[in-house]
Amino acid sequence: MRMNLIAATACALAACGSPGSPNVLGEYGGDSCTYENISLRPDGVAIVTWNAAEIALTYRQEGDKIILIKPNGSSSRFTLKGDDLVLEHSMFCTRRR
């Protein structure tokens, strides 16, 4: 019982599976980003702008991973590195200030 409480507390502090911890919220994009913009909102919605179209996806955070979930259930896993969302070392989307 005590171990479950410790694990649940650690998971909550690490934002396991929850959207919108303050360090990831905001707008991402840039020349090395395939998307024109990625907006991570506190309600777990990611607004992705691509080819001038806005698409609402859901997302969740697991530690330093940001998982964008498409309507068909497939997903893309980004790693948060400083102000960059990095997709498998091939796409870097930088936080806009």
Question: Can you count the helices?
Answer: 1
Helix/strand order, N-terminal first = HEEEEEEEE
Based on helices, strands and strand pairing, what is the structural class? Answer: mainly beta
Instruction: Report low-confidence residues grouped into runs of 5 or more.
Output: 1-17
Give a count of the beta strands, DSSP E runs of length 2 or more.
8
| Rg result | 14 Å
Question: What's this entry about, in short?
Answer:
With 97 residues, this protein is mainly β. It contains 1 helix and 8 strands; from the N terminus they run H-E-E-E-E-E-E-E-E.
Features:
97 residues, eight-stranded antiparallel barrel, disordered N terminus, 1 helix, 46% strand, mainly beta
Verbal overview:
The chain is mostly beta strands and 97 residues long. Helix content is 12%, strand content 46%. The protein is built from 1 helix and 8 strands. It has one helix spanning 2-13, and strands at 26-29, 37-40, 45-50, 53-62, 65-69, 75-81, 84-87, 91-95. Strands 1-2-3-4-5-6-7-8 form an 8-stranded antiparallel beta barrel. It is globular. The termini are far apart. 13% of the residues are buried. The model is unreliable at 1-17 (pLDDT under 50).
